[in-house]
Amino acid sequence: MVYYKESNESKLTCLLCSYYCDIKDSEIGICGVNSHINKKIECLVYGHVSAFNIDPIEKKPLYHFLPTSKSLSLGTVGCNFHCTFCQNHGISQKNNIDKSNYISPKQVVQIALEKKCASISYTYNEPTIFYPFAKDIAIEAKKQGIKSVFVSNGFQSKEVIDDMVGIIDAINVDLKSFDKNYYKKKLGGNLDQVLNNLINLQKKGIWFEITTLLVPTKNDSLEELTKMVKWIKKNLGLNVPWHISAFHPDYKEMDVPRTSFKSLKMAYDIAKKEGLNYVYIGNVGYDNNTDCPNCGKNLISRKFFDVKYYDLQNGCCKACGQILDGIF
Ligand code: SF4
Question: From CA 221, how far away is CA 291, in angstroms rounded?
């Protein structure tokens, strides 16, 4: 895909995310890392990785995607959102690019091969803003049988979602709130666009799981969570995994307490009552089980990022033959 197009008054429109920034010559978009230079939009963080780790895929979190595998995880600096509770604000809210440090897509894939990673995850900051780099890595990775994963705020442009088909294998999308004003004033982007993108990802057949970080007093009311779960059920169905994750004080929200287990369990119970098949409570050591949605047999059992029990055969329940949703 072409990542920008001509706009009026000698500006260029960046096509990476749904802000569609119109950028004047020598200026930079909202994310702080895509700039109009010499009649092109240049992704300034291309090749400049700010963080590299090897993580269990369960940490992304993706629970229905190659369980127990390792994922080479990387991010750059910058973000198109400005969440006040960002747990990676040290890189996401910075745009000081370390240009002395360059790595090519082929070199990234070579590391993934050497470390026996089944996938490469583009994570830590919003990968959509460095899609040109992520895509080039993903294409190289595919040649070696390595898959690609986005951990994203779900604010891609329509053009990027179209382009991801066959390139990006799975996404974890943060659904951060169900309040339009909160998105607009405190996070970035907008709720309706994120919801439209979830529907679009499903139409395109890209596997995704949803994560909601429960921030006390900000997005954890019974009413808001019920609306969110009902929307998921109505628009995406019962088989999209929903991860409910615990907040800890960070960045500009140091006065907000940690999420209580009671609050996490309330969200879990709402989702189970509505019939969602795969609901998980993250980062508090809860026993997260995946049971067969047909016969109820336990298929996978986890604690933190460890898979303690795994009993699938070719992605199916051994007892009744039901295909488990996801990529196994
Ligand atoms: S990635 Fe999004 S925020 Fe950044 S310049 Fe492009 S449209 Fe703007």
Answer: 28
How many angstroms is it from 79 CA to the middle of ligand 1?
Answer: 9
- Alpha helices, DSSP H, located in the chain: 89-92, 105-114, 131-143, 158-164, 180-182, 191-204, 222-236, 261-274
pLDDT tens figures, 75-132 = 999 999 999 989 899 999 988 899 999 999 999 999 999 999 999 999 999 999 999 9
The three-class DSSP label of residue 170 is strand
Atom 4, ligand 1: which residue's CA is nearest? 31
Q: Is 34 near ligand 1, meaning CB less than 6 Å away? A: yes
Concatenate the DSSP letters of all residues of 88-126 into one string: THHHHT-----TT----HHHHHHHHHHTT-SEEEE-SS-
Quote the ligand 1 centre to 31 CA distance (angstroms). Answer: 6
CB atoms within 10 A of CB 296: 11
User: Global pTM?
Assistant: 0.97
Contact between 86 and 126 under an 8 Å Cβ cutoff? The reply is no
The 3-state DSSP class for residue 72 equals: strand
Per the CB < 8 A criterion, the answer to whether 322 and 312 are in contact is no
